[in-house]
Amino acid sequence: MYTSKISGLGYYVPENVVTNDDLSKIMDTNDEWIQERTGIKQRRHIKKGDGNSTSVMGVKAAKIAIERADISKDDIELIIFATLSPDMYFPGGGVRVQDMMDMKTIPALDVRNQCSGFVYAISVADQFIKTGMYKNVLVIGSENHSGGLDMTTRGRGVSVIFGDGAGAAVLTRSKEEGRGILSTHLHSEGAHAKELSLEGPSTEHWVPEIIAEDPQENIPYYPYMNGQFVFKNAVVRFSEVINEGLQANNLTAADINMLIPHQANLRISQFVQRQFKLSDDQVYNNIQKYGNTTAASIPIALTEAWEEGKIKEGDLVVLAAFGSGFTWGSAIIKW
Fold first, then answer.
1. Do 262 and 299 form a contact (C-beta atoms < 8 A)?
2. Upstream peptide bond of 91 is cis (omega within 30 degrees of 0)
3. What ranges do the domains of the chain cover?
4. Cα–Cα–Cα angle for 94, 139, 16, nearest 5°?
5. What enzyme class is recorded for this protein (predicted)?
6. 219-246 pLDDT tens trace
7. What is the spatial distance between Cα 93 and Cα 78, in angstroms, rounded to a whole number?
8. Is the bond into 162 cis (omega within 30 degrees of 0)?
9. Claim: this prediction has a pTM higher than 0.90
10. pLDDT of residue 49
């Protein structure tokens, strides 16, 4: 039976740094207020004219991951692209990456699971490899949030949280038992879909309807988040899905060498860390620098942790995410 392993990692974030103090100049907020609630000190935003887009950033991250996997772009047999912010309504970002990288006519699959997108995409890639269908799969998580945020006081509860960036991983076939991706675990609860959502433009809320409404009262083209409700659900689901993954592999929290949680809110990560009695060296957080980059947050953090030597061969690495949908998931990896 085949297994899959992560053979290459890469990430890219725009050069434009936006600090909390920068935001305080355009909305009623301040550094202390943002850090206290989210742990975020700064984030990266695409700057007009810098040539970046969701797909372009994905390509930049992908090229690094492919080089580190010691293969060529022609060895990639499938692209899985996770994002909530594609360059256009359709087609998705995967085919744009295929075109920009001048790849063969390989399949490109888009995953729309928001903050859980990368974990879902890893799970899909893992299954394709385990069945023997593909040998090398490129998985990308990329987001361009900044262009779609309400950068006024009205939208500060959401807008201060999110940043732009991309991360990528190459998954490769292996026959080494007990190594690589041991298992993935996925869930959803659509009953709470509207607690973290963007309702339009969409097929339920097209542009003409939006224009006809009073833009000061109802702005469906900006994201909505019920912050406290999301937080309460996140801490429960994070713990559940991490435990599910550990139990499926006869492991305990004591076996974890590195937990890479989705960078939703530093307070959520710290709560989960306490729940599992993990040290600071066993949990990697970079939300302070990049904000919440949704589908890109786990691959960016995973790449940074690996680059810093905090993930070594033989380590047990756990990925976990929770977000809009609600969707959540975990991946248990023996590096």
1. no
2. yes
3. 3-174, 180-334
4. 80
5. transferase
6. 667 888 998 999 999 999 999 999 999 9
7. 13
8. no
9. yes
10. 93
Side chain identity, residue 279 = S
Q: In degrees, to the nearest 5, what angle opens at C-alpha 108 toward C-alphas 181 and 203? A: 110
Q: For residue 222, what pLDDT is reported?
A: 84
Number of Cβ within a 10 Å radius of residue 282: 18
Positions of E strands within 200-294: 224-225, 258-261
CA 141-277-280 angle, 5° bins? 60
Would the CA dihedral through 279, 283, 286, 288 be positive or negative? negative
Residues recorded for the chain: 335
- Asked if 53 and 93 touch (Cβ cutoff 8 Å), the reply is no
What mean pLDDT do residues 104-117 have? 97
Check if CATH label 3.40.47.10 holds for domain 180-334.
yes
- Exposed e or buried b per residue across 133-170, where buried means at least 16 C-beta atoms within 10 angstroms of its C-beta: ebbbbbbbbbbbbbeebbbeeebbebbbbbbbbbbbbb
CA dist., res. 102 & res. 86, Å (int): 19
Residues catalogued as catalytic: 115, 262, 292
Topology agreement, domain 3-174 and domain 180-334: yes
Q: Tell me if residue 176 falls in helix, strand or coil.
A: coil
Contacts 24+ apart (CB under 8 A), 88-97: 89/201, 93/54, 93/55, 93/58, 93/140, 93/142, 94/140, 96/55, 97/55, 97/58, 97/59, 97/62, 97/138, 97/140
Pair 6, 71: CB distance under 8 Å: no
**Alpha helices (runs of H) in 101-189, residue ranges in sequence order:** 117-130, 156-159
Other Cβ atoms closer than 10 A to 11? 27
With beta carbons less than 8 A apart as the criterion, state whether 282 and 220 touch.
Answer: no
- Backbone conformation region of residue 238, classed left if phi is above 0, alpha if psi is from -120 to 50, else beta: alpha
